[in-house]
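Q: Sequence in, structure out?
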Amino acid sequence: MANRISVADLTAPTETFRPHVLDLDDFSPREVEVVFEATDVMKEVLGREIKKVPALRGKTLVNLFYEASTRTRVSFELAAKNLSADVVNIAVSGSSVAKGESLLDTIRTLQALGADMIVMRHSQAGAPYLVARHVKSCVLNAGDGWHAHPSQALLDLYTMRERLGRLEGLKVVIVGDILHSRVARSNIWGLTAVGARVVLCAPPTLIPFGLGRAEYPLPEVEVEYNLDRAIEGADVVMALRIQKERHKEGLLPDLREYVRLYQIDRTRLARAKPHALLMHPGPVNEGIELAADVVTCAQSVIQEQVANGVAVRMALLYLMGGGGGGA
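A: Exactly. Output:
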């Protein structure tokens, strides 16, 4: 692993980082730390009057989003432009995909047109893995189905460490639709890799069957169905967005019942440690997963997560683009 980078290094790429970031299930604690070290530098860049460095000048990044997104797509676009990369945003609805072009044909066309890096969101779990096997371009998974969202998890971890000074030993409670959450899965991998204690809390219908058992294909975590017990002594409380269509599918009780049992309000948040952070990947359904008055409370770091997302994604693009020490 190369030495810690500085702003002065940003125009001098050295060894390469991993070529693709698809999930955190194979990240070592040291790799997470390398991303954080690079993020510290990117935050320094973002604190300047001119928020731009030439680290990826001459590189072309393609944002290929098969699902609608605002936060993640704009965050990657800003990150790439801050590093002086050329950015192409592709609206799938207006592309050849709408005419029946296959995923691999689309990716090969983009590579032939000069795409060095592809940031991809797709509704099908595993789609970025398929793409990474067939192209020379770097691939960064911006969310695939219910499976993974590695950059979101890294910005969540970075925000925790920045605020609390450490990750090892923290009690992190994740509340909500665990079953359908790519954010939860990537956070589980990342948090357990760095030694945090993860507690999941949701109605039984929104917890994957077998989760918490050694044979399930995720790290061992704790599962607690009672939110009051789960949140006791927590260092971090992370709520996940509840998709209202789950109620129609019969996976949720009446939404009022969900609010009564699983909404995070000031009374419940008070059960956590006094310094506890309140997090949410967004967008928030105010009045459902979070009471309206806690969204902007002193413990909420939701807006910090959004801001840190740009710096973390700058770090990933810089490292993948050949600007940082490899693992």
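The chain has two domains: 7-148+308-323, 150-305.
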